[in-house]
Write a structure and sequence with these properties.
The protein has helices at residues 3-6, 106-113; strands spanning 13-14, 19-23, 28-32, 37-39, 45-47, 57-61, 64-74, 82-93, 99-105, 122-126, 133-137, 142-147, 151-156, 161-166, 170-174, 187-188. It has 189 residues and is mainly beta.
Length: 189
């Protein structure tokens, strides 16, 4: 597939409501995997090819506003596909306005596993104290960013995937096109 044709989203997306608020009995999760398989907060799945940075998730979970922006690169194993290569996360505490902008990448996680850097996450702005855990989970080979009992963001360099989870009952997500994860009522045509 020529690169120029890969620049267009192969989906037609329709949204009936931009922001939707509801109460959860279970956690809500959104993810994008190695070959562009997107699972939205509503459980719908789609195959997408995204050769750039894009807003995967923009949601409020409890007292925290979370924005997750992966960037894709040509997959080393399949040069005709794009896979998540970096992830930027911004977390803002709505009560205190404290925030953190933090990032990681496949390259950074490789350096971390080779002991050439001391942290799998790099703080770009703000304070890492906004989150409870920003480290590496060896059992899953993933960089994990978490506010205990509220949300988590996981980036696996081995699986080339990003998983975003909201554990709090208070959940508001921006719909398409502001974030690919959508809302609970997002429809794909």
């Amino acid at each position: 597939m020529p690169l120029s044709s890969a620049l267009f989203l192969p989906l037609v997306l329709f949204v009936s409501v931009v922001t939707f608020e509801f109460s959860l009995a279970d956690e809500k999760a959104c993810s994008i995997g190695r070959h562009g398989t997107l699972t939205m907060f509503n459980g719908e799945t789609a195959d997408v090819e995204l050769p750039c940075k894009y807003r995967l998730a923009d949601f409020t979970c409890g007292d925290y506003r979370v924005k997750v922006t992966p960037g894709s690169a040509v997959d080393q194993e399949d040069s005709h596909r794009f896979s998540p290569d970096t992830v930027w996360v911004k977390v803002v505490n709505a009560n205190t306005s404290e925030f953190v902008k933090i990032r990681t990448s496949v390259r950074r996680l490789d350096k971390f596993s080779e002991h050439r850097t001391t942290n799998p996450w790099q703080v770009k702005e703000g304070s890492k104290s906004v989150v409870d855990f920003a480290d590496y989970d060896e059992s899953r080979a993933a960089a994990v960013l978490r506010k205990d009992g509220v949300f988590s963001v996981e980036f696996s360099s081995a699986e080339r995937s990003v998983v975003v989870t909201c554990l709090d009952q208070e959940f508001v997500s921006e719909g398409l096109p502001e974030s690919l994860c959508g809302t609970d009522i997002c429809l794909l045509a």
